[in-house]
Amino acid sequence: MRRLLAALATVFVFAALPLGPAQAQEATCSRPTSDAVALYIISNQSPRQSQAYWWGTTDLTIGIQAAPNVDPDDYAAVQRAIHTWQTAIDECLGGAVTLTYVPAQPGSRARTDIVVHLVPGAGGNFFAGRAECGPSGCNNVLVSTTSPPGQPGDDGVAEYELWAVEGIALHEIGHALGLGHATNMESTDLMAYGWANSSFGRTPVISQCDVDALAYVWAWAMQGAEPMRPQALTYACS
């Protein structure tokens, strides 16, 4: 299978939102350690710090909108990715945040806070997945199931293996929830690119750094405070 190192992308569209302090908050669970040095916080990656998206609500919904020709196994892989994030949020954010999966009826438009668009070849020539974020949150996540045209896999097969489809979905949903990339992109952390090649050969896991960074993003909710944007550009992995 072709390497995905340059095939994962994140696109952000920012709008003005108020600033506010956020104190460090640790996740309420134990997860595998990570080789990431730090994770960027998406809400602070705008060139203008006063213009960035972040979630001001704690009850998020997520759904899948799939193309008619999507393989059921690929659909199930994205469902697993959603379930994995649901479990991590339930276990690690002290019940302060929920992520609810809302199945869409066949042929209908998903109407959820986060919509995962599962479309073969959705990334064109450039990427396997992308999170598109706007002023009211990160509403659209694109996940492709095939290699970009003209860049076949190492074994000559254009279809991504199921572990990769699930990993792409996990990575992009992580962006939608507020996590940026790892500062050392060669890391095998879920939010880096090191896992996304054929030699890794397995779906990445949500690490302790991932959930601790998410707890930082939602520190206000875990502390029972009013919504406020985290101020740090990065969250250091311990």
What would the keywords be for this entry?
zinc; alpha/beta; globular; three-stranded antiparallel sheet; six-stranded mixed sheet; protease; 4 helices; single chain; 238 residues; Collagenase (Catalytic Domain); metal-binding; MetalloPept_cat_dom_sf; 9 strands
Short description:
Residues 51-220 form the Peptidase metallopeptidase domain. This protein is an alpha/beta fold.
Can you describe this structure?
The chain has 238 residues and is of the alpha/beta class. The chain has a single domain (8-236), classed as Collagenase (Catalytic Domain), CATH 3.40.390. The protein is built from 4 helices and 9 strands, in the order βββαββββαβααβ. A 6-stranded mixed sheet has the order 1-6-7-5-3-4, with helices on one face. β3 (59-66), α1 and β4 form a beta-alpha-beta unit. α1 (72-92) packs across α2. The longest helix has 21 residues, at 72-92. The protein is globular. The two termini are 33 Å apart.
